[in-house]
Fold each of these.
Amino acid sequence: MKILLIWPNSPAELMEGGDLEAISEPIALEYLAAGAQLDGHQVKILDLRLHPTDLDMTLNEFAPDVIGVTAYSMHILSALKICLRAKQLLPGCHTVVGGHHATLLPEDFFEPQIDFIVCGEGVRPFRVLLTSLENNRENPAIAGVWTRRDGTFVNGGPPSVFLIDELPLPDRSLVAADRQAYFIDWMRPVALVRTSVGCPYRCTFCSLWKIMEGQYIMRNIDAVVQEIAGVQEEFVFLIDDEAFINGPRMLKLAQALKAAGVYKRYFAYCRVDTMVRQPGVLAAWRDIGLERLFMGVDAISEKNLLEYNKKIKIAQIETAFKLAADMGIKIFAQFVVNTDFTQREFKQLRHFIEHNRIEYPSFTVLTPIPGTQLLNNFDNVTELQPNGRPNWDLFDCQNVVVKTSLPKEEFKREYVNLYHSFAGVYQQFRRGVNRMAVN
Ligand code: B12
Ligand code: SF4
């Protein structure tokens, strides 16, 4: 069968937040493609973030039997439109959606233009589904998949166990023509590699431990070395939820990469306390090319750290910065801007960044992402669709979707000012920072 896998783009009017200025390889689709090709299907990937006007042409020319669309929350309304368009142009085409939002809130996809919703890891159920469709079984019951049957959606049972080492390597060749365009700030072109998935921590604003039901799953080290060795890009972003949690394993991986002569310019997520606990592991990674860490500082008051269940102390944050500086590892420090911030907290945050000479601060608005305790219901969400569900287009962690302590316009102004205050830092990388506007 012919399978078209699609990465949606944000609505054009939201581009200032929306797709931000970081567009990386569609690795979820590359995994799905690799799986589908094992069964002989012909697969194409369309990345609408890079080719926003190519949908109709690709549907008409490729005429897929099945389209598969991935979506973070901020892309789900676009995903619904894509599936609707596919049904209009190719009425016989099956539509499948998957990803984080589909896993946590599948009901947002209970629409006539959607045929199947895949929850959790997708390679295995997608392969099973394609085989069923090929054999003309249109309403199969598949673990982890919701199927539209007589106008309602039926669940095929809980997703099966996530066997990470059974996944094929992502097929990067399908986006060969786009690879030069994938970037995150200073990293261009950048490749994404996953060495583990899940996280043992329980931060309240994060959905990752929920989606993995608390599991932390690690890949075989040799397979990771083989994958990184085969990546053509110099920049590699380890997209583990928290890469360095298991220090001994990461030390072994660094040693194995070194022994294989694989040197890249690495970027990875790292908790403050992970760095403080095991600087030796980070030093080993620095020696094979670790350049910068994405460190979730998130809060600068003990009160907020407690509220977020971060399990770190302010003193550890300062120690982590110092250790990183001593080792020559740069820090991309992430701060959550709480919607209860007043002028005082905004000022304190600016002061904290200046005082600690944080070279590269980054901000997100505290957002009730599906799967977090912040979104047990929609009572606090101020940005709604006419059907009463949240306006998911705005769930990019840059827009404000809940009540704020400050008047909303003032909050937005202060938030944008944070970026402006540190604009010098970004100018070399982020051409668009001055375009950020209060909307
Ligand atoms: C790497 C990453 C990024 C990178 C690169 C993203 C890219 N490719 O361009 C960067 C840094 C740019 C980024 C940015 C953002 N990110 Co991000 N990111 C991630 C991270 C760490 C890994 C994602 C990933 O590629 N995983 C590996 C792939 C293989 O897994 P997967 O996507 O889950 O796909 C599997 C299944 O879900 C399923 N599946 C997925 N799609 C489909 C489709 C079909 C048809 C089927 C059958 C199955 C299926 O099968 C896949 C294969 O197993 C995740 C955390 C996580 N653990 O997922 C957050 C995550 C996806 N990001 C998140 C967010 C919020 C953002 C931002 C909005 C935040 C911000 N403002 O900074 C931006 C938005 C950027 C954008 N415009 O797209 C959230 C999304 C939550 C949500 N419900 O929407 C996550 C889950 C983190 C979190 N804290 O909760 N991100
Ligand atoms: S924010 Fe980071 S440390 Fe906290 S639960 Fe999520 S992935 Fe784990």
Note: The longest strand covers residues 290-298.
Amino acid sequence: MTPPAGAADPFQTDGMPTDRELNPHLKLTQRGEAPATPNPGYARITETPTPHVVIPRHRLFANSSQRQLAAALMEPDIYVILIPYGGGRSFNARVPNFGESVRTLLDTFLFGTQTEPEDMDIVKILPASEQEPRVGESLSFQQPWGWLLRCGRDLRRWLLWMERISAGINKTFSIYPLNYFEDSWKIATLSADIITPNTSHARALEILGNVKKTCWANTQFKKYVVDMSRKNKSNLSPQEALVQATSSWELVPADHKDHLGKLTRVYILTGRPLSTDDKERQTWVALINSVDTVWVGVHKIDMKTYQNRISCTWCKSDLHCAHACPVAKVEDWYGPDPASAEPEPAVGGRRVDEEALQEDSEAQEAIWGTVSRGKKRNSRGDNSRGRGGGRVGRGRTRG
Ligand SMILES: [Zn+2]
């Protein structure tokens, strides 16, 4: 197990994981200096910061009208995107007046000497087409989830700083900019017989070491890291580049809940992307997910089964499932409560979609009521693929 003298050791843990202060998944809303805040109005909103949720551009805009987005992206400093908490088909059907109720709420936020609300525009993002959903897409949860908002400068700044407004069951949403898109640090999702709620920290580090070891030994992985290192004009040796590329890696526990309510503990591998380019980052993630099988002694680590199954239909995070959404756990939360909408275990009948998404949409329906499933027959019941992120809105994400 001991590496030869001078060689890098994938099991070395001193000073790791690095860059935690940059890890977007560990951040809360309301970061940095507060901008001008509106005068106290009559709206009761959540004041406590809640977890910051990363929604990469390709996920945010999957299945959105490109024509409409292009028009908004022409004015990225004027528009912001609102993502309703639990947004999706069930939500849209149940809360058709979301735009109006949000507008009424926002009208109460006045700044300084302002006495009248500023001119405002709020419009639903339209789907790319009315065609049947892509394979693996949950109907209730299907994108687009968001709305575009154009409003005054002070309100825009304050909303972006707040990041999430919770003012009632139908008035809870997060706010995302159009002039900056964040990358998720999620890389892979690991499951195995040795990954349980009782797995020790030492065992988790052993698993992580073996993941690194397997990646380091992979020719394509090594080539990608060395190429990126050269591109960034670094003077690191190939071995140092491998250590640096994976020094931020850590395993984050999450629980997947199946259609019978059975929980499976998984570890989500997170790490700092080597590039800010969406396409390059996705190449990196794909590479890691296609390296040779990771083994820990006699135990095989599965990196395929759960990769696209950990995803929250409430806040849209891809690091937890709906039943475990941490966003709604603050004391002064006024939005829907995922915990009070736990789905009943399946009794008889066959579920087409066994993924967590199905569970989540049922949990949402417990709050928002049943939505017509008329199009359900279109579902091909094939959930072997993910939600196909990455087809839309790739390319440069900044500037
Ligand atoms: Zn969530």
Note: The pocket of zinc ion is lined by residues 312, 314-315, 317, 320, 325, 327 (CB under 6 Å).
Amino acid sequence: MIDKKKDPDPSKCKLVKIQGVQTNSDVSSSVINNQEEKSPYAQFRGSKTLFVTDFSSLAWCEFQQHYALIAGGRKETQAMKAGTEIHNELELQDHDIVSILTNTKEDSWGIKLYNLIFGLDSLLTSFKTRELPIFGFVSGLFVYGIIDQVEMKQMGDTFEYEWVISDTKTRMKPFLPNQTNIPPSVKYQLMLYKKLFDELAEGVIDDIKIFQTLQLNPDLEFSNELANFIKINCEDFNEKEKEFKPNLRNLIKVVINHFGKIWKSSNILEVSYKFQKDGRDLGSLYFEYDENQIENHLTKSTKYWKGDRKPEGVPIEEAWKCRNCEFADNCEWRLDKIKELEQKKRALIEITNGRT
Ligand code: SF4
């Protein structure tokens, strides 16, 4: 099945999956018993794929993230809906999208890898791509993400052109925020994108470990629709059709080959802002990649995901975050902090009364 408003040229299309009958489906990440005994990585992600946002959103409030995982996700707000619409519109400005029926988890990963190859091709031919899938390992945990945009740009005073990674955020106010107001979660998200992108560009791709972690059969041929699409639209497959079977083992070879032509991204990262009401461009803010900062955050986050420590809520100075939190009424951390404060107040009153 193909979604089309106009007749798209398939070679200029990214893929999106429609789920068919799963013959070897992944059910391990669904509801899991004995929740307390398992690490959050095992409990909520089936010990397989963590997302870049699984690391970055811990910077806002770990308890909020933990509650959202237990609840099976966050409530979709108006802002989130508007953000998704703007992202979709931006992506469709660049290319069409073809829907493909997937029957196996290998098909689903085949689509991700095809979209990555498609994005890298766009980088090499038009120096810009949107919604680029990337992945890698962080302290042994597999992480996957989709970069909003990578574009070749001239940064600073040098004459050098660099791959600049950017993320698009929507805003309710029609002007740019102050530079100091870029939230740490946004910075960590972009820094982790850069880290993963650069590792791939440097050839750090352990395909065997990826297939093992995700329990994928790299030699299983893709289902017909995807296999045919790849054979027609992916040069390496139509040129060497006989020895190049459409499966994950061969598709990742093409990914590795494409990354061989790409180099590391700029140390300057971009946050591009759009006005939520009408999608209008509000401009961009830039900040510098900080290796120590991201490493410290990843080390701390990994301990949470591996279950080596409990999540933490916000410190008292950031209690304003609780005001709009959907979990505030029953949040253990918040209720404990309120109790602590009341005890302190009582103790203070007793001391003051004792003095008088
Ligand atoms: S109420 Fe506050 S501490 Fe609790 S989850 Fe929400 S933001 Fe975090």
Note: The two ends are 82 Å apart (CA to CA).
Amino acid sequence: MAIIEDGDLPHFQLGFVESPHPRDAPLAIEHFPTKIGGKPLWLNPRTPLDPAKLTCGACSAPMILLMQIYTAEDFPEEAYHRYLYLFVCRKGACHRGDRRLCTRVFRAQLPLDNDFYETDPDTEETTIKPAYSSTAATTCAVCGAAASKRCAACQKTWYCSRDHQYAHWTHAGHKEQCSRTTTATDVTSRLVRAKLLFPELEVVSEPELSESERIAAAAAAEGSATHNALVPLLRAPAVPEEYEDSETGVDRAFLKFQHRIDMYPKQVLRYLRVDPELDPEPLFVAAEEKPDLERVAPCPRCGAKRELECQVLSTVLAYLPLDVTDENSFDFGTYFVLTCPENCELKGEYAEEVVLRQDFSSDGMSSLAQRAEKAKEVLKEKEEAENDAE
Ligand SMILES: [Zn+2]
Ligand SMILES: [Zn+2]
Ligand SMILES: [Zn+2]
Ligand SMILES: [Zn+2]
């Protein structure tokens, strides 16, 4: 198990939502963002995912993008650009049955030398080549999946399915826009309100520092006028080992989880594949019903044993417009994403990888409403700290 002690050891990377406010402009693929929600930004515009792969196996509705994670790798060359796309059905009821039907994760890769992006080796700035738009496949105006149906009236707008054509017509303003030359500007926010997309929010990363490093960093920053919102809150957390011996009757795995999360309470993503020296360390949210991360099917392409790459945390739910009073609302404890460690070649295709889920036990923090309340408190604290800094 990895123990983070000194500054010279590698650190896990934590993802934080940059701003909880809706964006003025959508994120651009050439900046290779990691993000929550919105339509998927396809690394390869010629091969958007087939809507058949994005259909919930439980309710047959299209699944929606929860998160896409940019994870560039050195080997092989094809993994120079690399994305993981995590889709879920937003109906909580679907997740009570076989979760493999309503949660899926896909890997996409592209080498440095490709048809779509030009990266300046000195500045690392990337621009889009003309082939990006001229050879892009048509995508659904609602969900971004590959589209094969077109609006018969304007012949310009494409859809993956009749459902999404109907949704675009009634909820996203196509009824008014169809015959006009201008396009509606607030389509994304309308689709979010119609529960067809999650709001698009950028996720930025920071290394997870040990307690001693955090104290040193805070001491160094003291007196400095700029308040970095991502500097973790300094609290005096209890030593996790105490929990191991305690007879409190509460879920120790949850307390340990809570202790680790409390150092960076706004983290939504733990990126664990950072260095071969550092074993990915899963944080279970309960002692019960731990998914077996060792017994996962090997990569069907190359046979390698899949390994834990990252963990998505339920803190992300605070950023999604979910009805926390609805017991059928989409909810989860944590998702573990396991992938082929060889980044084996895909040649423009997608590799479906494995996502496993664990829920909070009833004696951990239980309801979605409770956790949403806590997450809101944290956001409020952050805003107050930002206002104080101004
Ligand atoms: Zn479903
Ligand atoms: Zn669609
Ligand atoms: Zn039309
Ligand atoms: Zn493989």
Note: The CA atoms of residues 254 and 364 lie 6 Å apart.
